[in-house]
Amino acid sequence: MAANLKIFQASQVTDFQDWSRDVAGNMERTLESLLPASNTAPTRLHDAMRYATLGGGKRVRPMLAFAAGLISNADPERVRIVASAVEIIHAYSLVHDDLPCMDDDVLRRGKPTCHVEFDEATALLAGDALQALAFELIANFKLADSAETQIKMQQLFARACGSGGMAGGQAIDLANVGKQITLPELEFMHILKTGALIRASVLLGAYCGTALSEADLAQLDRYGKRVGLAFQVVDDILDCESNTEKLGKTVGKDQDANKPTYVSLMGLAPAKQFATELLQDALDALSGFGDRAERLHQLAEFIVRRQH
Amino acid sequence: MAANLKIFQASQVTDFQDWSRDVAGNMERTLESLLPASNTAPTRLHDAMRYATLGGGKRVRPMLAFAAGLISNADPERVRIVASAVEIIHAYSLVHDDLPCMDDDVLRRGKPTCHVEFDEATALLAGDALQALAFELIANFKLADSAETQIKMQQLFARACGSGGMAGGQAIDLANVGKQITLPELEFMHILKTGALIRASVLLGAYCGTALSEADLAQLDRYGKRVGLAFQVVDDILDCESNTEKLGKTVGKDQDANKPTYVSLMGLAPAKQFATELLQDALDALSGFGDRAERLHQLAEFIVRRQH
Q1: Domain count, chain B
Q2: Given its phi and psi angles, is residue B57 left (phi above 0), alpha (psi -120 to 50 degrees) or beta?
Q3: Beta strand pairing status for A111-112 and A107-108?
Q4: CATH value at residue B77
Q5: Fewer CB within 10 Å, N side or C side of chain A?
Q6: CB contact under 8 A, A129 and B99
Q7: Neighboring chain A residues of B129 at a CB cutoff of 8 Å
């Protein structure tokens, strides 16, 4: 029985790795085809957009969209578009976040950051154009059974990107540098900065399929919120514990920059405990979905247990 | 007869001034209410977004949207949303364009530029959040009789903002600095950089009303293209002839920056002649619309004849 259970778990894990590789491969091919070609003008801008988006990243947000799509039996052709849109927004946010006037970072995903590889102006414009491209995608493709639902998806998506979402979170992050802030203030920042787009990934994936009840959507949103926060807590833990080579980005930056983190505010062990609690709550939110939520379940575990 | 004609013209001019003041006033109130409030978090970001958008600008793009809306008998409640979205994109583009890594400008609309008044990171994020807000607006409000038409408007809008539109034009503009380029190359840059959003303003305003024929839309697009180009030619002429106080932005920058302009490539008199030809072609495009095109007609004249 114990042996059987182990095999079952092992097979589950292998299975998840295969699945996540599939998603990452699908994403790479999809993004490759959706991004403007390198040989069309303006070529340098398009090169920078491709450089910032292709060939790297954990593709966590696309995985969340695909996994949530399984809840509503969504057409993968639709999900790959919303997943691309979300990933493109994520890529643009990293490009702008790495700029000298922001985090001034030179290394990202094991490669020189966009403004180092190209130049600041090109990186700025590549980020701007990527944001527009993401919105173009969710307007250009049919993503829901009705145009009304698609417009609802666009509303949710735009809100997640703006001053009440990701961009707002980055502004608060910036304002927090060197400040004494409380845990609720840190949480508010992260709920906007990374949480908004992660929640959007989950909901947008789900919206690509058959209509879900308000109650189901609320549980998915609860899952997305917990996973988004757990993602950040784990990021802080890894930034404290890992090394630059493994993480593919400069490590210890947060501490150097005197940025408040879950580790600096709670301590390492309580931060780990908090991540575990968030994981449990995320999994609880899935309890009503049965087998359809298997990938979301595995993803939450992956996000909290990852080593980079 | 001659006297009557003069009175008629004078009354037309006064009438246009009243109308454009009305549009500007409507825009200011609308933007004021659509932008996130100064007292909601993140307040500094919201202040910067408001600073960059409110209290200035010629509001040419909103005027084009309102004037084009008259062609299709559009509901002004819809037009003011698309006009706001377009103006917000314009405002964000100026904020990013003025950044040190781009044009490095300190004066805009007679005020310190956004990064001078706030700081570079805040200006960067304010631009990013403004772009997201514009897309949120065209998703949040009902702008067309059918959701399908609204999605078509979103496609057109996003394309005008991205690497095949405004952001792409800025990238080409940047790449052109110090280079010998041809007139067609200069035109290609401007058709993207300012032309795309101006054309979008016209078409979006028209789409807010009753459906127009493809032929009518094509004429409106021809009008938008000519007016967009004329706008830039006149900008170059003014940058060469005017003074900083009158223009409210640093003058002679283009020449200082060794940027190719219509004046530098054609000479002053031929550039003026070219602007007049573009104006005539824009007016010709309106010939089938009769009285409904009166405001578009006046606007084209205004754009070419303006002194700042």
Answers
A1: 1
A2: left
A3: antiparallel
A4: 1.10.600.10
A5: N
A6: no
A7: 162-163, 167-168, 171
Structure tokens at A229: 């926060």
Q: Are B27 and B62 in contact (CB under 8 A)?
A: yes
Cα A140 from Cα A162, distance rounded (Å)? 21
Confirm whether A7 is domain-assigned.
Answer: no
The predicted pLDDT at position B260 comes to 86
CA distance A185 to A173: 10
A80 touching chain B per CB within 8 A:
no
Interatomic CA distance for residues A158 and A72, integer angstroms: 22
- Does residue B15 form part of some domain? no
What residue in B sits closest to A146 (Cα-Cα)? B147
With a cut of 0.85, is the ipTM above it? yes
Residue A102 included in any domain: yes
Query: In sequence order, what are the residues at sequence separation of 6 or more whose Cβ sits closer than 8 angstroms to the Cβ of residue A218?
Result: none
Within a domain: B41: yes
Provide the Cα torsion A13, A18, A23, A29; round to 10°.
160
Min CA distance, A135 vs chain B (Å)? 6
- On the question of pLDDT at A249 being above 90, the answer is no
Strand partners, B111: B108
* Rounded-to-10 torsion of CA A23, A24, A26, A27: 110
Q: Where are the beta strands (DSSP E) in chain B?
A: 107-108, 111-112
Instruction: List the structure tokens of B270.
Output: 């031929």
Determine the structural domain holding residue A69 and report its residue range: 17-305
User: What are the distances in angstroms from CA B189 to CA A93, B10, B185, B228, B272?
Assistant: 26, 37, 6, 12, 19
Residues of A in contact with B119 (CB under 8 A): 101
- Nearest one of B280, B268, B269 to B304, comparing CA atoms: B280
Kindly report the pTM of this predicted structure: 0.92
For the record, the structure tokens of B300 come out as 């084209």
Question: How many CA atoms are closer than 13 Å to the CA of B225, on its beta-carbon side?
Answer: 13
The model's pLDDT over B85-128, given as tens digits with 9 standing for 90+, comes to 999 999 999 999 999 999 999 999 889 999 999 999 999 999 99
Q: Which residues of B touch A158 (CB under 8 A)?
A: 132-133, 135-136, 139-140
- Comparing B230 with A260, which gets the higher pLDDT? B230
